[in-house]
Amino acid sequence: MAKDNDKGKKAKSASKKGKKQQRDWKKMIIPLFLVVTMLGTVVAYVASSNWSSRIGNNEQSSSTTRAFGGIQDGLSLIPQGAGFARYADLKNDSVLSNAVDSYIWLKGSLPSSQIFGVSPKRDLFAIYPAGHFGSFSDQFVSLTDFGTSKINTSYPDYYDINGVIAKQVNSMYYYTPSTVPVVSGRIENVAPVINVMFGSNASAYKNYSDLFDELKYKQISNGGMTFETVGTTSNLTYSDRYYAAIGPVDPSNTSAYRLYSYVAILHTNTTIPDADLQNLALLQGAMEKMGFQSYNTQVYDDYIVIEAKGSLSLCLDDMYSRWGFIKYQAAL
Question: What average pLDDT does the structure give for the chain?
Fold first, then answer.
């Protein structure tokens, strides 16, 4: 009997504990619910605050930001058919940035700081053949990264391109402040770029992809380049497309006379004349006498490849004057 009484006491004690735990659990449900609700409210507030704070400046959400680290990224954001494109990384090349005023073809093709309130950090400038976007002369478009600086957004909203607002500076110039990079130019030129950036339209990268593939196949590096161009016409009349680029050999050296790597590749659409092959062979000695540390040319099947090292001014002059790798049209 004593044992039975002990069992009964234990059963009653366990029953009381169970009821107490049930009551305690019920008490916990309401506070837990409140915590979850409040946490959700805080997260929603923070998310909405971050989003609203980004509207109207250059700190955009990932949905309006595209990779823009070089000309290959840039070509992937513009429509097919570009006859020329120039990419300049002024953020990572102080020597090039300081020399902008010395080259009208560079200064004149950059978006104006008077319009945007800040200077470009990275910029792609593309020129299309006559009539590509319409029956007018301004067949160019710019894609620009202004870094973390807030750009001027005081101009009136004009046009909604698939949810992207374009600001109107004047009847000939518009820009998209909510995208990174910012797209600017005539509205007829800006709209097709937005359709490529945020749609499925084919890009200009396809027009030049074989040049990058060929460099990779030949194990010729074009990494670290801060100034790059592609185009369909050059001073070599039997070449139908080219890629040319330069970049500092030692980025930590900030001297205006620092050494630059210079790489170019041209695709030829016919057999190279024997006289030109001889001239290419002689070019090394002539260019090294002009100041290049090295200047080598090679012919691989349908491609001519240049690998050189020289100062910024020597490399840019060779690209512009000798080969015609740089084209110019004023951005405004």
Answer: 85
